[in-house]
Design brief:
Distance between the termini: 49 Å
Largest sheet: 2 strands, antiparallel
Number of strands: 2
Strand content: 5-15%
Strand order of the largest sheet: 1-2
Helix content: 25-40%
Amino acid sequence: MRQRALVVPDKAERVFNFHHSTLHALKEIIQAAGLKHPAELRAHHIVRRVSSHEVRLMSDLLKYLDPNDLLNGNYRYTLYEKYWPMAQSDSFAPKVELAAT
């Protein structure tokens, strides 16, 4: 039913306008940060409101690891300690350990 209701030329124009607006907004963010290219954008350039009266740099909110930390078992954060062992290189599905019976 939805597929029949889709008007491709109309949708194409709306997608084009959305994409154009997104690129324009990105350009404004990059310029406001004093950067020349989006590849230069880092977490310390972005501020996030965490409550009605507090903002914090994303670089303070994100959990960073050093190169090879996960491969060497240096998880540093509970988040990685819990989920990294479930990762599989050949699938997005988590590896589930079956409990011994």
